[in-house]
Amino acid sequence: MADLRLPYGKGAVELSIPDRNLLGIVEGKKAERIEFEQAFRDAWESPIGLDDPAAFFHPGEKVVFVVTDHTRATPTRKIFPLVWERIRAQVRPEDVTLLVGTGTHRSPTEEELEGMLGEIRHGFCMRIHDCDHDLVGVGKSSRGTPILINRLVAEADRVVTIGHIGMHYFAGYSGGPKNILPGVAGRETIETNHAQFTDPRCEGCVYVGNPISEEMSEAARLVGVDFIVDVVLDAQGRGAKVVVGDVEEAHAVGRAFWDTLFQVKVSEQADLVIVSAGGHPKDIDLYQAHKAIYNAARAVKDGGMIFLLAACPDGIGHEVFTDWMTRCDKPDDVFGIFAKEGFKIGGHKAIYLAKDLRRAEIYLLSEMKSDLVQRFFLKPVTNPNDVLVDARERYGERFRTLVMPHGGDTFPVT
Q1: Cβ(410)–Cβ(28) under 8 Å?
Q2: Which fold does the domain 2-26+266-413 belong to in CATH?
Q3: Which 3-state string (H, E, C) describes 30-52?
Q4: Which of 170, 164, 112 has the alpha carbon at shortest distance from 290?
Q5: For residues 159 and 223, is the Cβ–Cβ distance under 8 A?
Q6: Beta carbons within 10 angstroms of residue 96's beta carbon
């Protein structure tokens, strides 16, 4: 019997699976333990694609640090003080703005801001991006998309992004240019960029040749990002690598490192995939937790079962996602809404979920009410053992199970 403890919200769920039914546990390789401050020091002193990050700063210049929001696990409260220590001789605190890049997400709460930034938010000007207000056009992409950017970023003398690199299911990877688009971009820009998601090149872990990520890179160049500070986290959420440098070159090194940890070969697809989104904040809502479903669908047989563990304390997480799914009588109806109304942010998530439901029946253990879960064509779960019973009845005593403890950050390769 395999006794498992899977991340769920800010805690964990325990589950036991008979050895005969366990095909394997799919998770990233263990990263070498690093001392974070030393890793940062090494990255700062050996920047990628540039000579000296501190040389960018001059007295009197306006500096904006774009940081990720509450839906990301970036250790900003560790990273920013290390950067500040190295530039404070050239930059006054009153010339620094910490801008939370929310994209189209809701604003973080006071409690979330405290967790993200701690005391540093009281020592500098802090602002939260609003994708519908105070935007400036900085040009157009090669595809003709108007690049609308937060005015603070557009008018800054220096722009630095702080983020974390992981898989993104249609932009290829998070981090790097994604802190600008969608992080601090206007809604129109974000929607036009994301509307390209139907292109077959828009897939997880596909960056070069991906039209969405390429346009994000163009936006970062138009803004004039001076450098990035990105971290790759291990499966336990600890820093595994820090990269500092050029927005493209440093990001490429971080992506390659992420691949070595989290692209995982699976010998065969399973009847049942049990997947945790990875706990808080990756399962803050269904909108964010869907990344784990996307990855799990790569590991399940056609006609199989996916069991997602995601607390979703914020519920669904997006009004359009909710609207599109709750207007459907069956999952495939969402394709008709898309054909009639065109792309909308949040609607793309409904499209992906409908595609996942073509592959497998999806069970969900969460804090959401059962009727809401069912409106998204998912099967609500209160007792995880019930899922194993269903799998046994459907596939027989020797049903095969894969377990993904950190599904949002594990990319199965078959």
Answers
A1: yes
A2: 2-enoyl-CoA Hydratase; Chain A, domain 1 (3.90.226)
A3: CCCCCCHHHHHHHHHHCCECCCC
A4: 170
A5: yes
A6: 25
Alpha-carbon distance of 47 to 50, in angstroms, equals 6
Does residue 331 have a cis peptide bond before it, meaning omega lies within 30 degrees of 0? no
**pLDDT at residue 238 greater than cutoff 90:** no
Cα Rg of the chain (Å, integer) = 21
Q: Judge whether 75 and 239 are in contact, CB under 8 Å.
A: yes
Type of residue found at 249 = E
Parallel, antiparallel, or unpaired for β 63-68 and 96-101? parallel
Given a cut of 90, whether residue 345 has pLDDT beyond it is no
The residue to which tokens 């702080």 are assigned: 162
Superfamily of domain 36-261 in CATH is LarA, N-terminal domain (3.40.50.11440)
Region of residue 379 (phi > 0: left; psi between -120 and 50: alpha; otherwise: beta): beta
Task: Provide mean pLDDT across the span 91-108.
Answer: 95
Place 212 in a pLDDT band, splitting at 50, 70 and 90: very high
Write the pLDDT tens digit of every residue in 37-81.
999 999 999 999 999 999 999 999 999 999 999 988 899 999 999
Whether 100 shows a pLDDT value over 90: the answer reads: yes
List 98's β-bridge partners, or say none: 65, 126
Instruction: Locate the domains of the chain by residue range.
Output: 2-26+266-413, 36-261
Q: What angle do CA 54, 55, 59 make, to 5 degrees?
A: 90
